[in-house]
Design brief:
heterotrimer; A alpha/beta (about 290); B alpha/beta (about 120); C alpha/beta (about 290); A: alpha/beta; Rossmann fold; Alpha-Beta Plaits; two-stranded antiparallel sheet; about 35% helix; C: about 290 residues; alpha/beta; 2 domains; 9 helices; elongated
Chain lengths: ~290, ~120, ~290
């Protein structure tokens, strides 16, 4: 079962929930799609690391063929090209790899070369396969990395894996999404079976919860909410869920202990039986609530 | 020689624009003939890469120096490739900065900031 | 008029809560919310009237004219972003489309064209203060350009104020750099976690190039005293003013949930924030 964990804003507990759910399950895969600031690996400290570079295509000019007509510069919507003297400059970090300039060059002076924009790191931490996407600082878009991360998820559905699933129970895949509701988040939830929306009990949290809820509805995904850092008293996020028919899967109380362990990159479900039970309970609720 | 300055309005009494790439206009000024031409900056409306496009405009106007309070790394690369010197303005009066430049009082701009890379993420 | 930018690096550190408190304490008459992805400042900085709204246009999006389309598939084959959906009627997925124009260029029938697309909305409140904010539409790419327009909008209204407060965007990318431009000082609000510390270091590196004053404060410091000490030590080593720390306070959360700023009522966080404000002003004006 593929589950995406998302929230409207950062700091609500997406990573806390996805990391701990993955740890609490018998066997699972954790995919960190927050490629700009991946944090999950800080908690898992995965071993047996295998790295794979992710590259995009960037134009490269053959200055002997280029006659300075500047059609490529006129075409480029991202302003990634400039012409000085008799040299064409390509700004690789601004380029969106659309391939347009190479297509339209009348002299065929532009060729494409591969450029690394980041990497995918695969490792293991106990019962969890940890897959982390990392975007290099300054790069324009993390979407190619997410596409690759999730392509591999599909590949994992081989006949042997399916057999294993039937034997050991459902295998879970948890996708730790980037915050917000921009296209990079949409890319992360495209093929999942269920979405967990994490919200904090503040007015700010509700406003952002509503945006991400809209996104999930747009994609027609079944969803449930996890309310994190809950305090006594009225919880605006709880109110929002009840008013909008969102199933509340679990309420995690605000506890100093959680904050401290989290800021020291410890996995609650592995440190402490009480938290393990909490997350096992949440896992059951999800498995029931979102059976595809 | 010809110099360029990013400006907020199309007149000599105006202020130097704090941004280079998204400046609404550029002044192209001939220091010998004192001829002043104001041109629109088409890069101001771009989603991203505005520094590069603005720099291309400056290069195409064949100036020898650019006076600006700051400059991003992409724009700087274009301008330096064309052997145009970049000077750091002080205060925001256009006329004062031109005068200071003519007296050799403006320092060369050394701190180039990382690009804004506007667009998607 | 001095401009103070409040940044955090990681989201959820309390940037907006602190910005709102500062606005009250400074009696600032000009402020802006540059967190265009998920703007929150308006929830605690109440405005007397409706704002003036204007559309923000992002990258244009491709559209296919079904009457001219012959389904030759050239557009889909050449689209690098998987944005063309084939079928009875070829359609462009507006969320995936990046406005590159390749489909428009390769279509032999002229059936594809790029059309302006609204990517968000700008809002400007002008009463006895100026409040500029914006909301990026769902599915849009985050935009440094929108951040720049939010600031320009705020600056376009002449108003007497000693200090203008900018609630910045989280993260370390281009919208953050766009918000740094024009600020006199940046205050980094950190929380004492390992992930936050590394983001804080990256922002400081960038802010130093911008030739502006920098300050750091720690919010929810009592959730991890050891990490708080690490942050204080880092500031000392880098000669960056440490402007104070604020404890976690359930009262503060309640205040915010009632749409109040934490200095509108008596609470531990509110008292601490007043100290942070005083220290920050000292650095800004020093």
């Amino acid at each position: 079962m593929k589950i995406a964990v998302l929230s409207g804003k950062g700091g609500t507990g997406k990573t806390l929930v996805s990391v701990n759910l993955a740890a609490a399950a018998k066997a699972s895969t954790y995919i960190d799609c927050d490629v700009e600031e991946p944090n999950g690996h800080l908690f898992f400290k995965p071993e047996k690391l295998v790295n794979e570079t992710v590259a995009v295509k960037i134009p490269e000019v053959d200055n002997l063929l280029c006659n300075g007509c500047r059609k490529c510069i006129e075409f480029c919507k991202f302003n990634a090209l400039a012409y000085i003297g008799d040299t064409l400059l390509v700004f690789e970090e601004v380029c969106h790899s659309c391939g347009g300039c190479a297509l339209i060059c009348p002299e065929k002076a532009l060729r494409e070369k591969e450029k690394a924009i980041g990497e995918i790191q695969r490792g293991v931490s106990g019962n969890v396969k940890v897959i982390t996407g990392i975007l290099n600082t300054g790069e324009a878009s993390g979407i190619p990395i997410i596409k690759k991360l999730l392509d591999d998820m599909h590949e994992g559905n081989s006949k042997e894996d399916k057999k294993k699933n039937n034997e050991s129970g459902k295998e879970f895949v948890f996708i730790d999404c980037p915050p917000g509701s921009a296209c990079i988040v949409m890319e992360s939830i495209k093929d999942v079976d269920y979405c967990i929306l994490v919200a904090e009990p503040t007015l700010f949290g509700v406003h952002n919860l509503s945006m991400v809820h809209e996104l999930v509805k747009l994609f027609g995904k079944p969803c449930g909410a996890v309310l994190n850092k809950c305090l006594d008293g009225e919880n605006p996020a709880e109110k929002y869920c009840r008013e909008n028919g969102i199933n509340i899967l679990c309420q995690i109380p605000y506890e100093n202990e959680i904050g401290t362990m989290n800021s020291n990159a410890l996995i609650l479900a592995r440190e402490n039986d009480r938290y393990q039970a909490l997350f096992r309970g949440l896992l059951d609720a999800v498995a029931k609530g979102g059976a595809p | 020689m010809k110099i360029a300055v990013p400006v907020d309005e199309k007149n000599m009494e105006t202020t130097v624009c704090p941004s280079f790439g998204r400046s609404p206009f550029f002044l192209i000024y001939d220091t010998e003939s004192k001829n002043a031409t104001f041109i629109d900056n088409n890069a101001a409306a771009s989603q991203g890469g505005s520094g590069i496009k603005a720099a291309q405009t400056i290069v195409d106007n064949q100036v020898s120096a650019l006076l600006t309070p700051r400059c991003g790394e992409n724009a700087a690369q274009v301008i330096q490739a064309a052997n145009i010197k970049i000077y750091k303005t002080a205060g925001n009066s256009l006329q004062e900065n031109i005068d200071a430049f003519m007296e050799g009082k403006l320092p060369v701009l050394n701190e180039i900031h990382p690009g804004f890379h506007g667009g998607r993420k | 008029m001095k401009q103070l930018l409040i940044l955090s690096g990681k989201g959820g550190t309390g940037k907006t809560t602190i910005a709102a408190a500062f606005i009250k304490l400074a009696e600032a008459k000009a402020y802006a919310d540059c967190d265009v992805d998920a703007p929150n400042l308006h929830l605690v900085a109440h405005q007397a009237s409706e704002p003036a709204r204007s559309n923000f246009y992002g990258m244009p999006k491709a559209e296919i004219n079904a009457d001219l389309c012959v389904k030759c598939d050239q557009c889909r084959k050449n689209c690098r972003f998987d944005a063309i959906e084939p079928g009875e009627k070829y359609k462009v997925d507006p969320f995936a489309c990046e406005g590159c124009g390749v489909c428009e260029a390769v279509c032999p029938e002229g059936a594809v064209s790029l059309k302006p697309a609204v990517a968000g909305e700008l809002m400007l409140h002008v009463n006895d203060s100026v409040f500029s904010t914006a909301q990026l539409r769902m599915g849009s790419g985050t935009s440094g350009k929108l951040v720049t327009e939010v600031k320009q909008q705020m600056n376009s209204v002449p108003i007497e104020t000693e200090i203008a407060i900018i609630d910045g965007s989280p993260g370390i990318g281009c919208p953050v750099i766009a918000s740094l431009s024009g600020a006199d000082m940046v205050l980094v609000v950190a929380e004492p976690s390992l992930s936050c510390i590394s983001d804080m270091e990256r922002i400081i590196r960038t802010a130093k190039i911008f030739d502006m004053k920098i300050g750091v404060c720690v919010n929810k410091f009592d959730t991890n005293i050891e990490n708080t000490k690490k942050i204080e030590a880092f500031c000392l080593e880098q000669s960056i003013p440490f402007t104070g720390k604020v404890p976690f306070d359930a009262e503060a959360v309640r205040a915010v949930n009632n749409g109040l700023s934490i200095v509108d009522l008596q609470c531990a966080a509110g008292e601490a924030v007043k100290e942070v404000f005083r220290e920050t002003l000292r650095v800004l004006n020093g």
